[in-house]
Amino acid sequence: MLIFWIIAGWVGFALLPWYGVDDFYSFGWLADGWPLDKDYAPAAALVAQGQKLWLAPMALALIAPLLVLRRPKSDPVFARVLIAAGAFGFAWLVAQGLGIGLRGFNAGWLDALFGPLDDRQFGMGYGALVTATAFLFLLTQGLAAHGAVNGDVFVTSAIAGVVAVVGIFVFFPIAKMLLAAFATDDGGYSVAGFFPKLFDPRIWGLGCLSGGQCGAAWNSLFLAILVGVLTTLLGLAFALVLTRSGFRYKRLLRALTVLPIITPPFVIGLAIILLFGLSGTVTTGIAATLGIEPSRWIYGLWGVLIAQLLAFTPIAFLVLIGVVEGVSPSMEEAAQTLRANRWQTFRTVSLPLMRPGLANAFLLGFIESMADFGNPLVLGGNFDVLSTEIFFAIVGAQYDQSRAAILAVVLLAFTLGAFYLQRFWLGRKSYTTVTGKGDSGVHPRMPSGLAIPVYVVVTLWSAFTLVVYGMILYGSVVQLWGVDNTITLKHYITAFRVSWGESGLRWTGSAWDSFWTTMMIATIAAPLTAAVGLITAYLLTRQKFAGKRAFEFGTMLSFAIPGTVIGVAYILAFNVPPIEITGTGLILVISFIFRNMPVGVRAGIASMSQLDKSLDESSLTLGANSWQTFRAVILPLLRPAILAALVYSFVRAMTAISAVIFLVSARYDMSTSYIIGRVENNDYGLAIAYSTALIFVMLAAVGLLQLLVGRTQIGRRTSHGEGH
Amino acid sequence: MKAIHTKAASVRFENVSKIYGTRVVAVDNINLEVAAGSLVTLLGPSGCGKTTTLRMIAGLEMASKGRILIGDKDVTKLPATDRDVSMVFQSYALFPHMTVMENVSYGLKFSGFNKEETREKAAAGLALVGLKGFDGRLPSELSGGQQQRVAVARALVLEPQVLLFDEPLSNLDAKLRRQVREEIREIQQNLGLTVVYVTHDQEEALAVSDEIVVMRNAAIAQKGTPRQLYEEPADAFVADFIGEANLIPVEITALDGDTATVRIADYTHRLPSRGLPKGPAKLAVRPSRMRLVAGKGEGVAAVIDKATYVGSRMEYVVTAAFGTVFAVLDDVVTPFRKGDEVTISFAASGPVLIPGQTS
């Protein structure tokens, strides 16, 4: 392994182009002046030609490991040299990247210290990437040899790898964004300018109390709390019907609640417009029968609220169903034998045990609502929320980066606050009720006082969801909604036309471009997301190492960062060197990986904590190392979690909009942003047709993945599975 | 067919401690020597540190202080993968997604054997535990006892220097337990393996061990052969933990060489003094060494408090002036009843004075 990383380091330094080439996936540079042309030259060639001399010290860090190659691992010199070389090389690479940019030194004090630099550098490329990776893993080899994590190279490297990527793609952009919030118009930084912008009445105004307009921050907060509470209640109602009632069509109900997950969120907003908009079915129906003048009441808080409830209730449901099922029936049975009636049992035992689930569901609803971009854009009217304000600050005529950054900071403060409050509320109490021991009891039925309202709510809501989806399907095949209701396939044809030209098959439909881009990006992102998520979960559940709590917090944090914030942070961080990837497909892939990673982590943790730890331990005592154990024992047993992570990240990559809208470019347009564009042009027919097609594509993809990953054949877990 | 050989080595702990965090001491300064080819049991109540000690041998836990040697090699800092030790887990930890054959071959794959050797060795291992022909089954298709044997075979085929057992019988029913423990002992003796065995069941420990190490509160309470521990417990804890002794306060009234005369109420009994001085002492008497006679006689007057019929014998709780004792009698034909007045005396051999007790 050591030799491999040393060679990799040298390849990166002396063979590959150090700076970024135009297209990450193209190899035109091989024929275009490499290795001497200064755009494509490797670092070694640049230094040899007397350019970019600040790259030279890294050669030392690559030479040093060669000197200890023949020493045994247990030699302290071996460990020290590798640690020193890896740490120095990595630190120097990062420092020069951050310090020297497009206009020479990036900071005034560097100019003052070294004098102005009349050279510059662009974003890093293959060479820098490979060399940096090599430095990182030389460092971990050294640390492992020094005795970190019991000398385990795989675990040490995995930790360092996850820390590095999370640091670069989550913390670095967020830090950049915080910095941008302090930026002034002339390029400096000022705290004095920050506060007036932060307390701008457009953000914090309370005009709505006296009949005017409230600031975006209050609107967002109010909406998010409403959505959080209501989705939690609705999700709980669905979960109760599924687990604690004699309801017959549970499978149907389950399918219904999952449907919105594979729906791009703003599509629901569109359906709401078809129903309640000025020319909506319900509006015109009521106008005709009751003679009430059609109004635009749906554009504002109510419309956004209804759309978000429809879109996010399933998420709350999925969180709650696990928790509600997880409450050990024997606890409830115990309560009943202690003379509690069904209502008392529910109130005193079942409900308190569901507390973590309720808190999680609320948090998810809150964050999703805060981050949601599509529905407020489609339905918001004059009801300004933070996410749309951020968007207009970046793409609108004002183009005010620091305003966008400040709004993003406010948004981030809200979600992190909710995250913190949730942890505080749950406290340190243990709510674990699943012991892994056999538990043969059954959940009691809901008390009837609760059952009747729950049934009513669930029935009405299900009917409403069905109507909404009916509208989506119907809306995609009518000529012009509310005006000309003849059935037609023209929207599908416009979007997905295929024709035979002289050069064979041609994808002439207007949607194909963004469709194929989306498919490609989602297909690349899904396995990477699953991999990063599962490795992190493995480290969190199976390994002990210093700083594990901080590690856990850091990896879970991106869960509380709304997509809109990630979008802004990525633009601010990655359109300048050292990492210059805006406008590429790569930035989309990366944003999906780190947006969706927490779900992979959670799925992994959930299933790994059900695998008895003695399985790993026995593999280790049988002579397998931790990597072999991970591969041969843990991964095969994690197939369900892998499937969940793959499906989720694929679906999210196809439906996400909040971060994507900032990161797409003409070349890499995504389906969702294309559809939003059609909506803004009032081209509802095409937008809905495209969305409907996406829903079916995702259904097919989910089914296909299920086939590919297959079912793990483990049969019944033995009742002896629980160790001590 | 290749046979299973042994590379049995000794295990030595030198002042080993294991501390979790900063305060929780799981193992406190232990010295231990396990001779090559012997079976040593770590015995103690839960939380005494016996499993932690075992896991330190395996390399699943790292010692906080001290040195651990296997053979002549210092393995203190070696992780589990690099130690020549294998372990049979309480839960068996069979990989549920692999067949019996794949499970048994698992460790061989990482030990540099080619396919042919791996298959032969694994087959020999399965034959040794009597599971020929079960190669293609999944663990979930085996009974508990069979799973246990697969776990043993999987550990055996690696021919480890030391084989570890963590409460291997606790998931088996009572009848199977006796059979499996005899099989384990037989394999150990036939192959001359070094085995370290953890259990909280004293009967199991007495049955299988060459030597028993009794642990209490993270430290070693006593080590010795089963007979030594049973007949000469070092203190009240060991006496009680191994074979449920009645601890009776007595007075040593006379010393005659190595023989002491002890007195309880009016009853006297002669037994080895174990170096104790005259004065108050504690006497440990096994329930089966208690004699009960109806009515008055030579001994201590007492009343039957509880009488329990357990089939092969009678169990009594008896109250006397010095306290309550537990006695087991073989006579099930004419048992005493609750409230009967009896006289307690002791069998000639068996009762033992407990050193280090002053009151």
In short:
The complex is a heterodimer of chains A (724) and B (359). With 724 residues, chain A is mostly helical. In chain A, 65% of the residues lie in helices and 3% in strands.
Explain how this protein is built.
- Chain B: Keywords: ATP-binding, Nucleotide-binding, Transport.
- The complex is a heterodimer of chains A (724) and B (359).
- Chain A is mainly α.
- Chain A has 3 domains: 2-146, no CATH class; 213-383 and 445-475, MetI-like fold; 512-709, Orthogonal Bundle (MetI-like fold).
- In chain A, 65% of the residues lie in helices and 3% in strands.
- Chain A has helices spanning 2-14, 43-48, 57-67, 76-99, 108-114, 126-145, 153-181, 194-198, 201-204, 216-243, 250-258, 265-276, 281-290, 301-326, 329-337, 342-353, 355-371, 374-379, 386-395, 401-426, 448-475, 490-496, 512-542, 548-557, 563-574, 585-608, 613-621, 626-637, 639-655, 660-663, 671-680, 684-709, and strands at residues 100-101, 104-105, 478-480, 484-487, 498-501, 504-507.
- In chain A, the strands form 3 sheets. Chain A has a two-stranded antiparallel sheet with strand order 1-2. Chain A has a two-stranded antiparallel sheet with strand order 3-4.
- In chain A, strand 5 (498-501) and strand 6 (504-507) form a beta hairpin.
- Chain A is globular and about 85 Å long.
- Chain B is α+β, with helices and mostly antiparallel strands.
- Helix content of chain B is 23%, strand content 36%.
- In chain B, the strands form 4 sheets. A 6-stranded mixed β-sheet of chain B has the order 6-7-8-3-9-10, sandwiched between helices. Chain B has a 5-stranded antiparallel β-sheet with strand order 13-12-11-14-20. A 5-stranded antiparallel β-sheet of chain B has the order 15-19-16-17-18, with no helix packed on it.
- In chain B, helix 2 (100-109) crosses helix 3, helix 2 packs parallel to helix 4 and helix 3 (115-128) crosses helix 4 (144-156).
- The longest helix of chain B is centred in the middle third of the chain and has 18 residues, at 174-191.
- Chain B is elongated.
- Chain A binds chain B through residues 147, 150-152, 612, 614-615, 617-626, 628, 632-633, 636-637, 712-718, 720-724, and chain B through 46, 51, 58-60, 62, 77, 79-81, 83, 85-87, 89-93, 95-97, 106-107, 110-111, 138-141, 144, 147, 151, 154-155, 158, 164, 167, 171.
